[in-house]
């Protein structure tokens, strides 16, 4: 359903106005590592510092987060917009997600993207299935910024799809 469909409810168009950032969430190590374009990432705690990353149920990356117990979040900005296009296409299990992309490795072995505005390494604190997604909560254990740029912000046409 698109925003131009006359049957799109007003509440769905209103829900689409809730802004989010654009991020690359990575999980797994070595040849099993992968990443995906995410818009549902949010800080959820101060003590300990924590973020949530939301993954559609059934996606392989959720299993990698569970098994590895960690994930990384790279925050996109205008200078790292090329990463958005690379990861937006998605990767099947086993597909090499980082070909042609500069990566670094966190202390937990998960790759992150030093070309992004910022990155965070997170140790998994817990998860909960909610609706058709799983919310993973992670304690921030490391991270850095590349500069003082502004993160990319995403607003959807409606709240019924990405």
Provide a descriptive summary of the structure in words.
- With 162 residues, the protein is mainly beta.
- The chain has one domain: Pnp Oxidase, Chain A, CATH 2.30.110.10.
- Helices cover 14% and strands 40% of the residues.
- The chain contains three helices and eleven strands, in the order αβββββαβαβββββ.
- The strands form three sheets. Strands 3-2-6-9-10-5-4 form a seven-stranded antiparallel beta sheet, sandwiched between helices.
- A hairpin with a 2-residue loop joins strand 4 and strand 5.
- The radius of gyration is 16 Å and the shape is globular.
- The termini are close together.
- The model has no long low-confidence stretch (mean pLDDT 94).
What order do the helices and strands come in, and which of them pair?
Elements: H1 10-15, E1 20-21, E2 23-27, E3 34-38, E4 41-46, E5 49-56, H2 60-68, E6 70-75, H3 81-88, E7 104-105, E8 111-112, E9 118-130, E10 133-145, E11 153-154
Antiparallel strand pairs: 1-11, 2-3, 2-6, 4-5, 5-10, 6-9, 7-8, 9-10
